[in-house]
Amino acid sequence: MALVVQKFGGTSVGDPDRVREVADYIARTRRHGNEVVVVVSAMGKETDELIRLAGQVATTRPGREMDMLITAGERKAMALLTMALHDLGVPADSFTGSQAGFITDTNHTNAKVVAIRPARVSESLAAGRVPVVGGSQGVSTGRDVTFLGRGGSDITAVGLAHALGAEVCELYTDVSGVYTADPRVAPLAQKMKAVSFDELLEMTACGCPKPAMRSVEFARTWQVTLHVRSAFTWEPGTWVMKEDPSMEQAIVSAVVHDTSEAKVTVTGVPDKPGIAARLFRALADRDVNVDMIVQNVSVHGVTDISFTVPHEDLDASRDVVDSLTPELGAIAVEADRDIGRVSLVGAGMKSNPGVAATMFETLAAEGINIEMISTSAIRISCVVREADIERSVQALHRAFGLDGP
Amino acid sequence: MALVVQKFGGTSVGDPDRVREVADYIARTRRHGNEVVVVVSAMGKETDELIRLAGQVATTRPGREMDMLITAGERKAMALLTMALHDLGVPADSFTGSQAGFITDTNHTNAKVVAIRPARVSESLAAGRVPVVGGSQGVSTGRDVTFLGRGGSDITAVGLAHALGAEVCELYTDVSGVYTADPRVAPLAQKMKAVSFDELLEMTACGCPKPAMRSVEFARTWQVTLHVRSAFTWEPGTWVMKEDPSMEQAIVSAVVHDTSEAKVTVTGVPDKPGIAARLFRALADRDVNVDMIVQNVSVHGVTDISFTVPHEDLDASRDVVDSLTPELGAIAVEADRDIGRVSLVGAGMKSNPGVAATMFETLAAEGINIEMISTSAIRISCVVREADIERSVQALHRAFGLDGP
Amino acid sequence: MALVVQKFGGTSVGDPDRVREVADYIARTRRHGNEVVVVVSAMGKETDELIRLAGQVATTRPGREMDMLITAGERKAMALLTMALHDLGVPADSFTGSQAGFITDTNHTNAKVVAIRPARVSESLAAGRVPVVGGSQGVSTGRDVTFLGRGGSDITAVGLAHALGAEVCELYTDVSGVYTADPRVAPLAQKMKAVSFDELLEMTACGCPKPAMRSVEFARTWQVTLHVRSAFTWEPGTWVMKEDPSMEQAIVSAVVHDTSEAKVTVTGVPDKPGIAARLFRALADRDVNVDMIVQNVSVHGVTDISFTVPHEDLDASRDVVDSLTPELGAIAVEADRDIGRVSLVGAGMKSNPGVAATMFETLAAEGINIEMISTSAIRISCVVREADIERSVQALHRAFGLDGP
Amino acid sequence: MALVVQKFGGTSVGDPDRVREVADYIARTRRHGNEVVVVVSAMGKETDELIRLAGQVATTRPGREMDMLITAGERKAMALLTMALHDLGVPADSFTGSQAGFITDTNHTNAKVVAIRPARVSESLAAGRVPVVGGSQGVSTGRDVTFLGRGGSDITAVGLAHALGAEVCELYTDVSGVYTADPRVAPLAQKMKAVSFDELLEMTACGCPKPAMRSVEFARTWQVTLHVRSAFTWEPGTWVMKEDPSMEQAIVSAVVHDTSEAKVTVTGVPDKPGIAARLFRALADRDVNVDMIVQNVSVHGVTDISFTVPHEDLDASRDVVDSLTPELGAIAVEADRDIGRVSLVGAGMKSNPGVAATMFETLAAEGINIEMISTSAIRISCVVREADIERSVQALHRAFGLDGP
Fold this sequence. Notes:
The structure is a homotetramer of 405-residue chains. By secondary structure, chain A is α/β, with parallel strands linked by helices. Chain A is built from eleven helices and 20 strands. In chain A, strands 3-6-2-1-9-11-12-10 form an eight-stranded mixed β-sheet, sandwiched between helices. In chain A, strands 5-4-7-8 form a four-stranded mixed β-sheet. Chains in contact: A-B, A-D, B-C, C-D. Chains A and B meet through α1, α2 and α3 of A and α1, α2 and α3 of B.
């Protein structure tokens, strides 16, 4: 008899019909011989709705009150799901974050978990019941209600799976898993059966939208096996786990792309120590989230520095660079929104030196110009024109054998 | 400096604009030199909405889960109102029923208050802040979240006013007070400046829709002066207080009517001991809410018994009476939905014997037939044809000088 | 048998219970022998909600699509209210603005009515039915659905009352009429039995929040008698009508105040032709809504100009004035948010010269300094410190005998 | 350049984020060189919500008013989606059912399409724009707004695809296609690449929940190729098309099950002409939806008749049978809710006589008793104990090679 933590996101419990369908599925999981602990998010977009309401009544939003407000969403969902389980004859108990033993710091609206003491959850399980825990909630060391932040239900689920020693933590969502590419761009994209924590972290960092990077990090840290799957089709999804050394590794597991960044280029910078440090410290001070950085080889003592930032940080970036231009001695600054990044991710890349070359050749054969390159041990990313992104993804997906047999 | 408890019902905080308007009014009350404790209901019809949601997910509704669900409504309202106060520079703290010290029995969904220990509310007040308490909530002696039932926010407000020794408990609603008659029926109806607990209890028992009878009972028990008033016009409303013996009492304070009852008549019943007892015990066993009862003088050893019941209890009443017919020896049973009751209420009636006579004469002059009569020390009620109700109210309102000077 | 147009605003039909209560009231009005035409707004805050949804999906909002979207709100309300009438046995028909014959220009989201041809409404009435018309809707000369703008339901109601020759147009809302002052500020404020179009226009221009100025203007233009009243208490409200020369006129009917404006003062302006014109043209070009203007007597060829603008226009006003400072030759510019305006309105003021003097004396006796003064034939307004507004209103309300006998 | 009709169901446009995601996908489809006509349902569960509102205000619901009410839902969705397309630079026009040329009969709330004249849709397409049509709407021959009933958006989409000669009608939903079995029961179930109209009709008749049987019937009648796919994962789904004789046919395409029926058995019925006719005519007169019927071989002139009905029709069925018992001369009636039906569907079954035998052997090997059997040319259904359903599905899915290679 396995212990499974099942976490249902907002869309999965978006309306009463869905709550009943989820309850039916939990009952089914138990009939198949498992013990189940459930974590549930607020229904649909209720968290957004509550935040919007707060914005409509006040511009100052004290954290203590915001957390009192927002946690009302999960309370509703957990009470309703528990009732739906009772209705099916499944004994169940709802627990707030506090009742489930999530102790946090006092950093309201984005609290950090400092301890998990799930005694009441364990008792409920031991009594043959299904504990239904409100996601993303805790109680602070100051005894106030706290919220773990957006996406915090994944943290609750992974944390409980770790604390209770669950076999797997299933994250139910509206997609059926992780794909080898975005199916809108590469229609032959395949759902992946499994992916390692490291690969998935690289993928989410490079544009793969789900699951949230934060929950993958938690799962890696706590060594909790995830199963990302659909609460609509209920088909098996993608397993996320520690890399198994005996397992044959795909050289390239996925092609990921991202068109949400812009490129900034500072030209004619004197090539001397401290220039880059000065620039990127100033950007960091403005909370600009710099991603890729490339510095050209120096010619005649001057060089060019290019970097990418999210579109929404572009204005702040230009302010920073403009204000530094006299000091940096730069000749010109250019900003370019019309770029995209295409990345290959694969754990097997480490031991296969030719991947980068094949990537560049493939893009060249399509007549696509590469503007920036960056790599990690298991990822290669190229910046190209945004208009070339779809063709790049399709060509690479084909070239690396991901289009399927 | 007076201490005022202000309770805002659902309509009063029905949307963000209203929440801000209420916060502005609270700030204004403080500027006028008062200390304020606020009690707030769930926004608009949210409680109904939550109960509806529960009905959509389950037919079995465990009380513990229902209370967890429903109390989410007041949490939202109290957190939002507290934020709106902060926004106006008014320091404020939200408190759940548990935090405000409402200890209840374990009778979920309709818990009874067993103790009020508002230490945190007092501390907040002492610190110059505005405590904002979620209405209708408590914590059971078993440490579970409880709900005090529909209209329970009035209980919370009256209870706090009593426990804290407040000067007045203001109940803000969508009407501007208590009227001498329903203005839809008697267009010259006046808003009453004041009414005694006893009068208002009689009025609510005879068809006056607001405030709820239960909250008037609590206020009388705890001797808490109420001020029923509007959160839309903000004009002074109606004071509800202990009768002041020195005060001149209106002979007739109000004309109240009710068309929600039906009349049942059992004819040809043998006039012997125990018959009525047998009948009304059987009705009580079916939870039929019998209101007026009239038994005719016996003729030749048989009599007729008439009584009124709410429309929704009429079918059950007929079942009961039909099943007893052989045993009662009755000849026939008639049910009549097309009746109405018109009542005069006034504390001065006790010392003015002619009121009943004037009432009967007034109705007679209008050609209106009286079918049943019942009285209390401060009330006279007549059952007439439903079609005659509007004319009855208008004639009585005029006859007793309530149409105004 | 009178023809009455009854218009119910959003709050009046804010939820299903309210829709049924309104239907009951319409049925009652018919039973009292009237013919009724109903105009209904979208339920509660639905129009706001729809506009918000549009803002969440798009920044460009084509007018044609916005009107298609927003008019969905009144469709719901009118269909539901018509069903509720059927349920009470009252025959009724819902009509869109187009079906009711409102022809508009093509100015989407804020269309102007160019003709009203209510043939279908008249037929429905002639057949003994209740027409229920969606407020604020029309069809453009280009055959597209149009919306008459916020508050447009009043226009629909007044327009129908005019076109059908109704005796009165009743505007049902959440307040019970027009008051002699804001009851939050002057607790002894009285509801006015009647007010003339001219007085009410001055009042709405000076801070009285309801009804909307636009609908009073329409009613005056079309000579439609209004009755502003409450759909919650149903008591008689305030009649708005043409001034009756035979009627004795109150010298002062109401005290109105407004704290939503700021004062801008430009000092040291050369006193020569065209300076003021230059300044106020520039403000108008920026859509700044200037209200009061005062220019001091010139001393040594220079003068000061003060004017008031809504708080939200203050920044734009400063920009305009700052940019003109060299040209105007002004010495300094001051902006002051902490002001308020208190106004007396009364049709009898025209023939009573001492009102202004009494007003100034009353404020002086309270030690309140007057910073600006402006007058019309039936209104006197003074700008004072915002902190003095409540005391000003209270003192004037008392001084002019409005506190009641 | 292909013409594609894309229909998005309620979940696909359930909130503003989803509306924008759908608009982005439509823009992408155009960029890939297609012409697109969009059909959109009301957002999320809005249709249910509107029907619920109607139920809260009235018990009588005139069809004309219901259709005025319900069609408000699609108006909102189509206007919002059109705005979102404009926001992406895609020219688009919203059209009501009436504007799109759907002429219906006058059968309100469930109108039948009598003609489609999509002139305005064609003009919009010809102008290089995207027509966005409100689903399930029309205008009656009496010029009133009509609603095509639940699931009517599929009818709108299939009808437009037929009338405009589209290459394919894509039905976007929250599942990613049609599966060889329910993945909750058979975890190795595969998404089908394609299925014929006939097979899918049999499957939907036997418990496969999506797409609705009605839309498959329309598509077969009008010979419109469907593509059932996900608006969440956007991966290719299942094609539904005319059977291609050259195509190799799977003997068994899918295993479908259904636990929503009950079995009624009438025993000891005299075996003479007209008995069955009498019984099933009486059931039909009560609108009981009889599915499978089995009559045993007669023994000694008496026989047994068993049939299945949906759970919700069981009570009516018993009433009917009980009232006929004397007339039928039956000995006893039994009702059994604890049954389930498992069905094999496959176009290749026609030419493969051994399928039934294999099915029976497979169930026998599992120790599962068959209680009733019925067949069509391309389907075999067996009634078994409800508790055996999951094992039956799993065993058959494996036995017929659907578990995959």
